[in-house]
Amino acid sequence: MTKRRRLIWQLYPSYLLITLLAIMASAWFATHLLTGFIFDQALQDLGIRAGMVSPQILQHLDPLNEAAVDQFCKATGRMSTTRLTVLLADGRVIGDSREDPGKMDNHLDRPEIKQAAVTGFGHIQRFSRTTDYHFLYAALPLFKEGRMMGFVRAATPIDHIKETVRKAKVRMVEGGVLTAVLAALLAFLVSRRIVRPVNILREWAEGLSAGDAPSRPPVEKGGTEIASLAEAIYGMAVELRGQILAATQQRNEMEAILASMADGVIALDMDERILTLNAAAGVMLGWTPQDARGRSLQEVARYPGLQRFARDTIDHREPIEQELVLAGNTQRFLKAGSSILRDGEGLQIGVLIVLNDVTRLRQLENVRRDFVANVSHELRTPLTAIKGFVETLKEGALTEPENAQRFLGIIEKHVARLEAIIKDLLSLSRIEKETENGEIRLTRERLLDVIQTAVQVCAEPARLKEIRLSIRCPADLEVGMDPLRLEQAIVNLLDNAIKYSDPGKEVRIDARTTPEGVELRISDQGYGIPKEHLSRIFERFYRVDKARSRQEGGTGLGLAIVKHIVQAHGGRLEVESTPGKGSTFNIVLKEPPLAARTG
To answer: What Rg value do the Cα atoms of the chain yield, rounded?
Structure first.
């Protein structure tokens, strides 16, 4: 911000500038007159000198004695700085105080000679080709008994005249500088006298603006304009102080309310420029309230839906409610409501938009809808099969022992599937509940013990498929865990690895410490998972190959349970897979959260 100049430095330079301009104009005018005067005096002096020598020269022109003329010119020239030249009427030079006349050109064409022949007196400033100097020339015609005998010309170097002018100018400049200094001092004193009461009033007003209680201005009372202004400011300050206090309190209350609101609030003028927005709206739009203020809505919120919503409110001049979808890196659902902003006279000055972020609610609704649909589908399939075989048995298959046994075996298989689904759903529900309520207690246990227990559980399915289970884990490696839950996660991963691997393959369980904590990797040489499925395999009931999964007896909840168990431990679950080569599930259990989880 540019620093404002004091009043004295606004008045004083103006006074000083006017004074200096006046002095400079006077000096220029005087110098111009002086230069003209000096040149006129020099010209007049040359004319007098030429006139004074004319009688002596005429004596040698009739009869003509050129040598005597030239000798006279040189003798006269030695006694002064004036150059003297004598010409005959035909322009031939017969005498010169500095040069040999015989070597000089005919001068009849010289401007001063032409003018003298016509007017009786010729003068000019010009360069002399004979002497290579600038001269001031004055010429007079020489008459004897009415007959022109020739011309006499007097000249003086311009440099001599200029030196005289320069000295005169120096004296004038010195006088002008002295006058300017005196004028500057006088202007400063006058400006200071004018500004002093204004400065007193300014300091008093600055105290008021800083929050000081209004007091009488410290200026002399009377009928001066400054005193009247001070009294007016004092009255205004008293009135404004009360209004400012009330407005400040109201503003602070409003800002506190807006800042504490979870809903986003945006106030726009009629040109769709942002008057204000709260922190919640700033988070939704990716702007800070300070940076967004004064900008257009199109610049701050590059969402066509929100822009149309604001424009419709302004155009229709009535409140509107609508659900908006803001597309970006993540999709955001907003429930928007608007109302009209009016001034004290009831005129519309803008719109107020309130944005309620219902993204989480929509996501939960989608999750609930998908979950219900998936559960219904997963339960309906075995129930439909059970119902069909029961009806078949009722219709007479009971009398056929061989078919009855086969049908009962199928019914038993589907019942077992229903039981597994319900068991996994209950297990998943318990894990989520324990995590939310903080009921999971982590204790430091040997990781190798948990891995070996999980391997024993999966040993029989692995033996039937001739799959080798290999363990590489330091015997002394300990980590904060819930042993039963972590064992369940490892069992689910091993079970999947065995199910989706061909006979004779190997499943490896590797554990080690890393800078992040403890890393547990379960790798198989199975069918692998295509890349497009990797981001969704931890969703409930999601299957990469639905037919194979049901054939192997999977419920579609195993990996979802693993994910929630790892999250309950404050860890991270990652997967890498290449179709046809196998998959690797990586559990990272972070150590730092342990202190916060154990008590």
So the answer is: 56
* Cα dihedral sign, 186-191-196-199: negative
Instruction: Give pLDDT, residue 139.
Output: 92
Instruction: Record the tokens describing residue 358, joined without a space.
Output: 């219902």
Q: Closest Cα to residue 505, out of 528, 483, 521?
A: 528
Domain that holds residue 135: 27-164
Give the separation between CA 171 and CA 232, rounded to whole angstroms: 54
Name which residue leads in pLDDT, 576 or 211: 576
Q: Are residues 546 and 531 in the same domain?
A: yes
Phi and psi at 123, nearest 5°, equal -150, 155
Residues 143, 38, single domain; the answer is yes
Q: Is this model's pTM higher than 0.70 or not? A: no
Give 498-514 pLDDT, tens digit per residue.
Answer: 988 889 899 999 999 98
* Alpha carbon distances (Å) from 534 to 2, 296, 316, 539, 574: 60, 42, 48, 10, 10
- The encoded tokens of residue 49 equal 């000198």
Distance CA 154, CA 112 (A): 10
Q: What is the pLDDT of residues 246-261, one digit of tens each?
A: 777 777 777 677 666 7
| Alpha helices (H) along 330-477 | 359-394, 401-437, 447-457, 459-464
Q: How is residue 213 written in tokens?
A: 């209680």
Contacts (Cβ under 8 Å, ≥6 apart) of 408: 389, 393
What is d(CA 469, CA 473) in angstroms, rounded to the nearest whole number? Answer: 13
* φ, ψ at 124 (rounded to 5°): -170, 155
Of 164, 180, 203, which residue constitutes the final position of a domain?
Answer: 164
Contact between 283 and 293 under an 8 Å Cβ cutoff? The reply is no
Selection from 182, 234, 192, 227 nearest residue 23 by Cα: 182
98-112, 340-354, 392-406, 510-524: least confidently modelled range: 392-406
- Tell me the pLDDT band of 597, cut-offs 50, 70 and 90: very low
Say whether 322 sits in a helix, a strand or coil: strand
Helix 401-437 / helix 558-568 crossing angle, nearest 10 deg: 20
Query: CB neighbours of 559 closer than 8 A, spacing ≥ 6?
Result: 492, 496, 537, 538
578 three-class SS: strand
Give yes or no for residue 321 having a pLDDT over 80.
yes
Looking at the domain assignment, is residue 434 inside a domain?
Answer: no
CATH of the domain at 292: 3.30.450.20
C-alpha 234/C-alpha 215 separation (Å) is: 7
